[in-house]
Amino acid sequence: MKLRINGIDKDTPEFLSVADLADWLQLPAYGAAVELNGEVIRRAEHAATHLADGDQLEVVRLVGGG
């Protein structure tokens, strides 16, 4: 499957959901946000939100520090 993640085209395994992609990217359980084709996907909807070839995602991880 081809996905554009944070502006970079990537060949990825076939994912069924945003939750599957988050696992593959090793995103933390909290402190990350996913936008799919311009729409922020709530964490509660990750498992039910299906991906398709050519989807565009922005993935943001919160970073703490001083």
Mean of pLDDT = 92
In this structure, how is the largest beta sheet organized? 5 strands, mixed
| Strand element count | 5
List the helices and strands in order.
Answer: EEHEEE
CATH class: Alpha Beta
Going by CATH, the architecture would be Roll
Query: What is the 3D shape?
Result: globular
Q: What is the radius of gyration?
A: 12 Å
The percent range for strand residues is: 25-35%
Distance between the termini: 38 Å
Compute the number of structural domains.
1
**What is CATH's topology name?**
Ubiquitin-like (UB roll)
Instruction: Work out the helix count.
Output: 1
**Approximate helicity band:** 10-25%
SSE class: mainly beta
Written account of the structure:
The mean pLDDT is 92. A 5-stranded mixed β-sheet has the order 2-1-5-3-4, with no helix packed on it. The radius of gyration is 12 Å and the shape is globular. The chain has 66 residues and is mainly β. The chain has one helix at residues 18-24; strands spanning 2-5, 8-11, 32-36, 39-41, 56-61.
Offer a few descriptive terms.
single chain, 66 residues, Ubiquitin-like (UB roll), 5-stranded mixed beta sheet, 33% strand, globular
